[in-house]
Design goal:
By secondary structure, the chain is mainly beta. It folds into 2 domains: 116 residues, Jelly Rolls (Sandwich); 96 residues, no CATH class. It is built from 1 helix and 14 strands. It is elongated and about 70 Å long. The N and C termini lie close together (11 Å).
């Protein structure tokens, strides 16, 4: 049985850090590797924030004559296709929902719109505005987690918590990694934010400008606002198993 660690070389593309603006990671040789996968993880993103990832190619490990690799770009936008999303019922903005306010959650291209109303409608996604922000949050959460499949969001669960005076609903996949989530609220009483998101760029070494000596790759991230960002690089397609140079490791087999 061949191990995953014997099939791909593991590297730090960009060390996890709060990055505001642009940062380029180290350059890695592709000479004995046919493929490379840059996998990025993002933490909390500011509203309307973006993170743009671009693979660069260069002549050597120092990044000499670096240039973009055409088409090797991925963009993450706040509150769009996130792994987890936070809905904050904000007391400072009034907290208590008003009839007609909406929260729309999109999963697998399908929109699920929850609407505040004077009273709960048990057969729809209309929830009671409540006497307080906490009541509004509880009513909304009950709809999101409804046992009625015609009301709930398939594959998504809401988890309640408190942050100061604000009531929080965290939206996540019932099975982590199975879905991505997009959300938008119609009023300032509900603040939507990304908790975390992932993206990746995969390239083949043949895409490099090898005729002009380009042999190394790196990833560049450009964040519109400070965002916790890290990138892992996996290089694969080698003829022989790679030497994994790491701080420590463990292998558990049945």
């Amino acid at each position: 049985m061949k191990l995953l660690s014997e099939e791909a070389k593991l590297e730090i593309g960009i060390t996890p850090a709060s990055i505001n603006g642009a940062k380029t990671g180290q350059y890695f040789a592709m000479g004995s590797h046919r493929k490379a996968l840059f996998a990025a993880t993002l933490g909390v993103m500011a509203a309307a924030g973006t993170s743009v990832f671009q693979v660069l190619q260069a002549l050597d490990a120092e990044g000499t004559d670096s240039k973009d690799l055409t088409g090797a770009t991925a963009t993450v936008t706040a509150n769009t296709n996130a792994s987890r999303i936070r809905l904050a019922i904000v007391t400072a903005a009034g907290g208590v929902h008003v009839g007609g306010q909406t929260v729309t959650v999109t999963v697998e291209g399908v929109d699920y719109e929850f609407t505040a109303a004077a009273a709960d409608n048990p057969l729809t996604r209309e929830y009671a505005v409540g006497a307080s922000g906490a009541d509004s949050a509880a009513a909304l959460l009950a709809k999101i987690n409804s046992a009625d499949e015609d009301i709930a969001i398939p594959g998504i669960v809401g988890v309640a918590s408190i942050d100061g005076a604000d009531s929080i609903i965290t939206l996540k996949s019932e099975e982590p990694g199975e879905n991505v989530i997009t959300a938008v609220a119609s009023a300032a009483t509900t603040v939507v934010s990304t908790i975390d998101a992932i993206c990746y760029i995969e390239i083949d070494s043949s895409a490099l400008d090898v005729n002009n000596g380009f042999s190394h790759v790196a990833v560049k991230v450009t964040n519109s606002a400070a965002t916790l960002t890290g990138v892992t690089l996996l290089r694969g397609g080698m003829r022989y198993s790679p030497d994994q140079n790491v701080a420590d490791s463990a292998i558990v087999l049945s």
